[in-house]
Amino acid sequence: MVKFKTLKAKEVKFGRNSFIEISKRKVVTPVGENVFFAVSRGYYLPDETKRWRASIALPSEKDKREKIAYLIKSFE
Q1: Bridge partners of 9?
Q2: What is the domain range of residue 64?
Q3: Number of structural domains, the chain?
Q4: Which residue, 54, 68, 70, 73, has most beta carbons within 10 Å?
């Protein structure tokens, strides 16, 4: 059985009721465990409940995350 655990999460609100959530997660499988980062886009329902539309996983290696951050910052 696969289990996911959110270790830390922060969000950036934008638009009327949308957000981007950056989270550090851990997945545990019978074979082992792995830590990764997830970037998820979501929105709030009228009762403030969160719903997610899409998500991508990013590698946990620092050099890879720095390269991704550099590329994002380079767009203007």
Answers
A1: 23
A2: 3-74
A3: 1
A4: 68
Which tokens is 22 given?
């950056």
> Comparing C-alpha atoms, which of 59, 28, 29, 24 is closest to residue 40?
24
What are 2's two structure tokens? Answer: 């696969």
Q: What is d(CA 28, CA 42) in angstroms, rounded to the nearest whole number?
A: 25
Structure token pair of residue 39: 């970037």
| pTM over 0.85, yes/no | no
Average pLDDT over residues 67-72: 95
SS3 at position 48: coil
Cα gap 29→2, rounded to integer Å: 5
Q: Say which CATH number the domain at 11 has.
A: 3.10.450
Instruction: Express each pLDDT in 5-53 by its tens digit.
Output: 999 999 999 999 999 999 999 999 999 999 999 999 999 999 999 999 9
Helix segments in 1-76, DSSP class H: 62-74
